[in-house]
Amino acid sequence: MAAKTIVNGVAKGQARVVVGLEAKAVDVLARIMGSSYQRLVAAGVAKFFPWAK
């Protein structure tokens, strides 16, 4: 499924091909917040994966 999405995106000449709901959410967040989205993502990772500091 992911490979098909990527191949279709490349065939259409899309500059950005995003696969999966999580990737789409992060992509939208990055577009809205700019580079400051990284702090939000880091806080979320720290909350759910405390060992990943």
UniProtKB/TrEMBL annotation:
Top-level taxon: Bacteria
Q: What is this protein called?
A: Short-chain type dehydrogenase/reductase
Q: Which organism is it from?
A: Mycobacterium tuberculosis
